[in-house]
Design a protein that fits this description.
With 459 residues, the chain is an alpha+beta fold. It has 3 domains: 6-153, PAS domain (Beta-Lactamase, 2-Layer Sandwich); 216-300, Signal transduction histidine kinase, dimerisation/phosphotransfer (DHp) domain (Helix Hairpins, Orthogonal Bundle), CATH 1.10.287; 309-458, Histidine kinase-like ATPase, C-terminal domain (Heat Shock Protein 90), CATH 3.30.565.10. It has helices spanning 6-58, 102-108, 150-198, 216-265, 270-300, 314-331, 350-367, 421-431, and strands at residues 66-68, 76-81, 87-91, 113-117, 127-136, 139-148, 309-313, 336-339, 345-349, 372-379, 382-388, 435-440, 446-453, 457-458. Helix 7 (350-367) packs antiparallel against helix 8. It is rod-shaped.
Length: 459
Amino acid sequence: MSRLPIRVRVTIAFAASVALVLAGFGLFLYLRFEDQLDESVDNALELRIADLGALLDEEAAGAEPVVLETLDPEDGFAQVIAPGGRPILSTSQIAGEPILDSAERDRSGDGATLLEREGMEGIDGRVRLLATPISREGVQLIAVVGSSLEDRDESLRQLSLLLLIGGPAALALAGLAGYWAAGRALGPVEHMRREAAAITAEAPGRRLAVPVADDELRRLGTTLNAMLARLEGAIERERQFVDDASHELRTPLALHKTELELAQRYASDEGELRKAIASGIEEVDRLAQLADDLLVAARSGEDGLALNQEELDIGTLLETVATRFQARVNAAGRSLEIKAGNGTSIRGDRLRLEQALTNMVENALRHGAGQIELSAERAGGVFRLHVRDEGAGFEEGFRERAFERFSRGDAARGRGGAGLGLAIVETIANAHGGSAGAGSTNAGGADVWIELPVASATP
């Protein structure tokens, strides 16, 4: 059933519902008609009992039963039975033997009794009898009237035939109407399907036509259009990512090629050769770092970064990162200070958190000035790891897009870097269930931090 088209399934469900309604209505109609026919027959029998009482007063009851011709022989018959079972008055169809046997006479003596028989001599089809006790001159008699049920049964047979023919015909018409109505109702869905099939990445901005009526189809079309907008945005971001990555890779590759050409040119001068090789190594390191950053950025868009979480001491984590930069900080004539709480640990991926902090310190070292400070503090429901410097801070309007991929301030474009550092920081923070932020210190320098949920921190 689930493999059938929706239009067929709707038609089957509609036809099944109509079939149940028709069957219930047909049964109700048949039973109601049968009850009315039975009531009509019983009323006619009661009227004949009254007529039979009047005839009995007019006719003398002799030794031989009186044969009556006043009742229509096609409609019914009648008989009056004296005590002992002797008929004293009968219609011509049943003149002679009494209609009732002794048991039926005894039962009829207590009150009006309805009886049915499959057939009687001289009467067509089944018959219904009404036996009623009557008293004449102190003698209790039993008046019996009857009627053939042939017409009643024939009427019911005709009704059954009409229902058996008309019901399936009505069901077939209802099924066709349901199939047509389902097709009309699903027409906008098919139209949306054809429109969706025609939408390609080469034709951005195209949307599905939404029905005017505020119904399920309109909401479906609105939802699909919103999904198309999100997909277009994702495709555009991926295109921009590829374009930016290609642009960022082109510069270090060109520089590396230049260094190799210089190395080849100064092959006879050992000093120049070593200098060219050292410069080439720096460019290779930059390419390797850029490739690693691009890999992290690409993975963050799939199922998120895979983390190997463990219990980490905050002080040890900050010391490790500080030691990594100590030589560069000293060479730049700057200082690096660590402020971490005593005995504070946190659950996280050591390598990823070191990478995030490394990018934050790299950003402060490359674009900031003065002392660099690594600190850890509890702030409300989160645990923050800060990297602050004493430089000029973020340029106006840049803070809002500082964590976007390949985002760089105007003053930073000539200082190297691909603009992925803070984007990687935010990716790692999000993978830990936290977030990243940026602001300014009281002195106006840059303040970059990552927030981790308190549930991850253990005092």
